[in-house]
Design a protein that fits this description.
- There is one protein chain.
- By secondary structure, the protein is of the alpha+beta class.
- It is 30% helix and 34% strand.
- It has an eight-stranded mixed β-sheet, sandwiched between helices.
- Helix 1 packs across helix 3.
Length: 182
């Protein structure tokens, strides 16, 4: 998978590129801790990075997910990722959106630009009806991203996900595809 936006390259990573992914994880370990499940030291190994990429590639190939990594067009540094997971086909045609960005690249519009492309993929290529995003209420920057892209707030799920060892509430946002062909 390979897509271009104005400033970004969004693409899948092959298993032999696990070092790029591991470098990203290690560089952002402290920053991402507040937004992710608790990680042990095994998580930050090349073998684990290879396993994660293998799973993401499998989901891409079987249309159970869309996992893309963000690079600036003029740099070779991995700056983030956007994942569509748990694609449900049939009558539901729905998925979950997840994303993360390198601490040194936040507040520059990169994530909004990348997600806009992923929305297009979901709605135009996959013909999905619904994209759901669940965000910790204190993550104001992430909430701004989805609001800019037209996601609507549907409510708060209490103690929705265990984040860094604590069950956190999450705001539930949804974007509907109003042009899905029947």
């Amino acid at each position: 998978m390979y897509y271009l936006t104005q400033r970004l390259i969004l693409r899948s990573l092959e298993i032999d590129e696990a070092n790029l992914y591991l470098d990203y994880l290690v560089r952002n370990k402290d920053f991402l801790t507040q937004w992710e499940p608790k990680r042990n030291e095994e998580f930050y190994t090349l073998k684990n990075a290879e396993n994660i990429l293998q799973q993401k590639l499998f989901e891409n190939e079987t249309k159970k997910g869309v996992h893309l990594f963000l690079f600036l067009k003029d740099e070779k540094t991995l700056i983030g990722s956007i994942s569509i997971s748990n694609i449900l086909w049939g009558a539901f045609l729905s998925c979950f959106l997840g994303y993360k960005l390198d601490k040194d690249y936040i507040n520059k519009g990169y994530m909004t630009e990348g997600i806009e492309e992923v929305i297009s993929i979901c709605f135009n290529d996959y013909k999905l009806h619904r994209i759901e995003a669940n965000i910790i209420p204190r993550n104001a920057a992430s909430i701004r991203v989805v609001e800019k892209l037209g996601f609507e707030y549907e409510g708060t799920s209490k103690k929705y996900l265990e984040i860094n060892g604590v069950w956190e509430d999450h705001h539930h946002f949804v974007l509907l595809n109003e042009i899905v062909e029947q």
